[in-house]
């Protein structure tokens, strides 16, 4: 069973719809015992870094996520969910993230031809051997909606990148932890394949 972590974030329904298409058993929950008994966890989300951490802390989910990830349970962060896995964000200075991975979330710099938020389809430069991208061709287009981007400290964990006025770490993978800045659930067949790869780990 896959648990989608429910912390009142946006975009959760599109993840549920994608898992329905894949005919995957899942539940949307913030119940601690159900999260502890789940096989895998997904942390989706659209919204503010600070508000999200406040809700995760308020629901007692921060320690559950850290504990489960530390014990080797597969975890997938999507969009804001990726950002929350890291240490902090320029969006809300002073607010600490889950700190499961080392790196910082920065604001996409303005440019003459750059609109913020970054909203639309961009191609990925994919690192060979990534488990999440098994069967996905290098250069595939995926869907982004974000104003902030990841700069990972450990370059070895970055499995895909794109460019939007700055080089963006679009996906990471370390042991049992996976994350995408883009939305696989909104990225057509290629995105569904990525979710399928996660489900089948």
Would you write up a description of this structure?
This protein is α/β, with parallel strands linked by helices. The chain has helices at 12-21, 32-37, 49-58, 61-70, 80-84, 188-199, and strands at 2-5, 26-29, 40-43, 74-78, 88-89, 103-107, 118-123, 125-126, 141-146, 148-152, 158-163, 167-174, 177-180. An 8-stranded mixed β-sheet has the order 2-1-3-4-13-12-11-8, with helices on both faces. A 3-stranded mixed β-sheet has the order 5-6-10.
How would the blueprint of this fold be written?
Layout: E1 2-5, H1 12-21, E2 26-29, H2 32-37, E3 40-43, H3 49-58, H4 61-70, E4 74-78, H5 80-84, E5 88-89, E6 103-107, E7 118-123, E8 125-126, E9 141-146, E10 148-152, E11 158-163, E12 167-174, E13 177-180, H6 188-199
Parallel strand pairs: 1-2, 1-3, 3-4, 4-13, 5-6
Antiparallel strand pairs: 6-10, 7-9, 8-11, 11-12, 12-13
- State the end-to-end CA separation: 13 Å
Secondary structure category: alpha/beta
- The percentage helix is 25-40%
Shape annotation: globular
The CATH class is Alpha Beta
Q: Which percent band covers the strand fraction?
A: 25-35%
Overall pLDDT confidence: 96
- Could you say what the CATH topology is called? Rossmann fold
Give the strand order, joined by hyphens, for the main sheet.
Answer: 2-1-3-4-13-12-11-8
